[in-house]
User: Fold these one by one.
Assistant:
Number 1:
Amino acid sequence: MLLIYGSTGYTGRLIVAEALARGLRPVLAGRNAEAVQMQAQSLGLEWRAARIDDAVALDAALAGATVVLHCAGPFAHTWREMSDVCLRQRTHYLDITGEITVFEGLAARDAEARAAGIMLLPGAGFDVVPSDCLAAHLARRLPNAERLALAFRALGGASRGTLTTMVENLGAPGAVRRAGRIVAVPQAWRTRRIDFGDGKLRDATTIPWGDVSTAFYSTGIPNIEVYVSMRPVVRRAAIASRWLGPVLRSGIVRRLLVAWVRNRSPGPSETERERAASLLWGEAVAASGQRAEARLRGPSGYTLTARAAVHLAVRALEGDAPPGFQTPSRAYGPDVILEIPGVTRTDVPST
Ligand SMILES: NC(=O)c1ccc[n+]([C@@H]2O[C@H](COP(=O)([O-])OP(=O)(O)OC[C@H]3O[C@@H](n4cnc5c(N)ncnc54)[C@H](OP(=O)(O)O)[C@@H]3O)[C@@H](O)[C@H]2O)c1
């Protein structure tokens, strides 16, 4: 049985719809009993309510579940409790985080997960399924690669949950991987021109996304940078945030930003999602200077999140869930992304 926790959120709802479209009958769960009940009853599904910090209620909510698809973020506040209960109940854990600290926290629970015979697979959404598969594909093409760069161009807007997670991380430094270790760098540390295959070279800037953590576990490549294509005004704001860290981290600024986020729509509309696309690019470089480059194109970030998360949850439900901490490509291979409808991959010929 699949249990979707955080099913009432913007992304949780898309994931529930995708699960139903694939013929699943998930059990819905979350902390707000009234909201979950209303959602479940409208869909004719079973539901359970439990706060994330109520271990007894969470144990009861997970009873009988084979797989939890955890959608309640920011995950920095929820991953530990949910992984605790999954370890106790021997339930496979998948989430849709993109937060480095969460990946690293779950990676540190690898031995516990192996002992319990369960899979811990964070990042089953837009970040990191396509980029992780792209990284593993490049490492397969260039096994002696020493440097990896990944870049995103996600079109179509962000959900309230994504913006809340971003607000929580405002004022924090950037991150890259150097010689196998995650190191802090200034926000918007580097910018490079990238050809995403959409007819124009675009400036993309480093961001501390999940792949700085996960691509290392998937490929062993010791030096990793992750870039996102952003408008110049956003880049300038990111650079300014280097000096505004204490201000951005102050309670009053956070509260103002959270209030601004709350007043926005829950996320991109169906039309916006249908119109949008996500473009990814990756490059692996060996010490000799040899390079491998590839691109991925897929549906909008939220559509891709729903399809990828449910696809990986189905694999786990079918019993294909290698125990321990996993990344998407480590568990299911670099080509699992090509099983998601609408995703294509292109190898860029060396020049
Ligand atoms: N990696 C990716 O590619 C990717 C893609 C999509 C989303 N995400 C992440 O997924 C998360 C959810 O996004 P969203 O768009 O669905 O946000 P959302 O619309 O704000 O929904 C958040 C959901 O999580 C629940 N929740 C939040 N904090 C909780 C807590 N402490 N305990 C229990 N439940 C909690 C909320 O419950 P209430 O209604 O009771 O508040 C709600 O059901 C965000 O962190 C976002 O960054 C990541």
Number 2:
Amino acid sequence: MNLNTPPRQRALVVGLGVSGIASALRLHKAGWDVVVLEKAAERRSGGYFIGLFGTGITAAERLGIELPDRFSADIANYNVDRAGRRRRSLTFTDAIPGQARLVVRGDIEDGAFNALPEDVEIRYSSIPVALRQDADGVEVDVEDRAAATATTERFDLVVGADGLRSTVRRLAFGPDEGRIHRLGYMIAACSLPGPVPGYRVKDGIVLAEQGRSAWVFPFADRPPTVLFNYRTDDVDAEFTRPAIDSLRARFGPEPTGETLGWLLDQFEQAPDHLFDSAEQVRLDTWHQDRVVLVGDAAWCLTLYSGMGASTGMAGADMLGTMLERYPGDVPRALRAWEAKLHPFIEFHQGTGMAMRRLFVPADRTEYRIRSVMSRVTGTTLGRKVLSKRQHRSKAAQMKTVDIALA
Ligand SMILES: Cc1cc2nc3c(=O)[nH]c(=O)nc-3n(C[C@H](O)[C@H](O)[C@H](O)COP(=O)(O)OP(=O)(O)OC[C@H]3O[C@@H](n4cnc5c(N)ncnc54)[C@H](O)[C@@H]3O)c2cc1C
């Protein structure tokens, strides 16, 4: 052993989603030995529509994550109603400046996973059950649920990338009370087997009503995905029955009409779906000495901001940069990382709340505003004017910021 070479540092990354894989990639690139724990028995695939913006695309490129682009110029979007009336509206890329990419979540996770070097150790069916920090490191009790074994290991850094309901957050920061904010909206999503009857595969649709909406997101080269949103005063009650029953109850009692009826049937038959409540994580700080949270575990922006995957990758990328900048001083690197990232994330948490209106009108006033906008975007001139205005908005510009250079 060369006595002049400092020993390699060891990081534990918890979670094999976008933020976890990106963190593992970047830490490995920064010269760390990396172990990843994933609760599930295997890596997931597929997933729902993701719009990736400049912030995320730049981070992905720097991380060496190759991504498809499922956008095509002849994608069209329609506002529709239950009676089958349709009116052209803005497409996703009309509203965002720069080269936004349309992908599904699995595309990002696959691209990131394929870029992971072989010597990153991944342990499935494994979770952390206790963390103990001292001045030099973190001792972690790890449970392997498949083997029914428990071990204790030491790391120089623990990265909690284990999502909205993070275990690392609870172990390091305490109970979630006051840190998770329910928005009062349920979300449900799945892939569709093909185009919506009566529409092309490249047609997107939005059926927005007071307190509820259904969105179909189209792609150039694969079937669309659907996203349902609805408002509720009692999130817990929505989980007490099968997801499809909650959806049918909330989209009733009126007759669904052909399109909404078909979408609900597809959700019921889908082999795999997401059903959850939209919740933001708000923490004053994302690190405790040598334990740091990244992605949804730290700042879950919710789907309404459209920046969760982008900030997961950008946050992981910058974490590696700061660890390289302050070698041997993990706490200082984490402080610098957080100071740089916090204002950017706070901005997107704020706009995420406002963007919710775009996805689902909460009340009569929001519904009326949406109806007026729908008439405006129904004309070519209206779409042009609104698209231009959107491109100039601060919210859209902030989606393209390369946070590493900001
Ligand atoms: C419907 C929908 C649409 C969205 N649209 C967009 C969009 O257009 N643009 C965008 O940028 N973002 C979007 N998002 C947000 C984006 O998908 C998320 O922000 C992002 O995927 C979060 O990644 P993550 O890795 O931080 O967390 P997660 O994806 O939640 O991954 C966490 C991982 O940790 C694992 N895990 C959990 N607990 C443990 C444990 N105790 N031990 C070990 N492993 C554990 C989980 O199994 C999982 O693999 C959307 C989200 C939704 C729901």
Number 3:
Amino acid sequence: MEGMGDLLRRMPGSRENVPLSGYTSFGTGGPARYMAAPGSLQEVKEVFLACRQYGQPYLILGRGTNLLVSDRGFQGVVILTCRLNSVFVRENRILCECGSPITSLMKTAVSHCLGGIEFLAGIPGSAGGALVSNAGLKDHWISRAVREIYVLYPESLEVKNIKGDEAAFGYRKSGLADYFVYRTVLNLSPADPGEMRRKMRDNMRRRISSQPIGSMSAGSVFKNPPGAFAGQLIEKAGLKGYSLGGARVSPKHANFIVNTGGATSRDIYLLMSKIREKIRKDYNITLEPEIKLAGDFGE
Ligand SMILES: Cc1cc2nc3c(=O)[nH]c(=O)nc-3n(C[C@H](O)[C@H](O)[C@H](O)COP(=O)(O)OP(=O)(O)OC[C@H]3O[C@@H](n4cnc5c(N)ncnc54)[C@H](O)[C@@H]3O)c2cc1C
């Protein structure tokens, strides 16, 4: 009988025992037992079918910029979305597949004079990752531009079209986490490309002055608790610049943890635990991680 490995080996871009440190912006993480890189909806279905058939857990991986993967890796199938990267324009709408980098959406929007998502400039993820976490800034989120989302339900392989206002979007969350987000349609408005570029440059300038851009990080580690900013709490607790192994609380922005070179995922995980413990003790606030954890972090 054909095994899981045989089946996945036939998938384009598939491999075994792939170190995930090359696929995460933290630059950490152990190996994926299997990795598949489907290039069409049909291939996505085949991968999920194989996972179901062989009882393999799966992890959907966009650009890995909001993810901490265990040093033990992921004992299942990592489904890379990078080959699902088509972007089309229809009137005032951009249709994009989930693996499209946000930078591609921005370029397409500017070249078609379509404004409304300039605030995403500098967010290094994919469209799918951005939708699942409702990426954005303090007061601008991608959900505001979403008209509809085509999702695949991994259990039944059914494809559904969810309207933007039915996706349960909230602060850095959505109701999409149990689905494979396949494609989305963004509603934009006619805009002056020069003005759009100016807004994007301003956003980038603000980021460069306040965030450790260029370091190995995954953006903000914790969500802001109601009425407060996680970064300010961490700084007031005296942890800005604090190091644990190769992981460090960024001296530039206390809600960023950076890999200073030799960090393991465990270093980052333990530093997160240390921060949570201190903030709980000092302020009686439990910080909720904004980044997603994958794999086993137990002792
Ligand atoms: C320097 C830096 C700055 C950042 N600034 C911001 C910011 O200002 N605002 C902000 O919101 N974020 C920010 N981020 C975080 C990150 O870039 C965004 O959350 C981004 O949208 C994540 O996309 P991704 O493709 O990298 O997702 P991944 O890290 O690959 O995945 C994140 C989660 O989404 C799931 N997922 C990914 N694709 C799919 C899919 N197609 N279907 C279903 N689930 C999927 C994954 O399984 C995982 O649970 C920053 C990160 C960095 C490194």
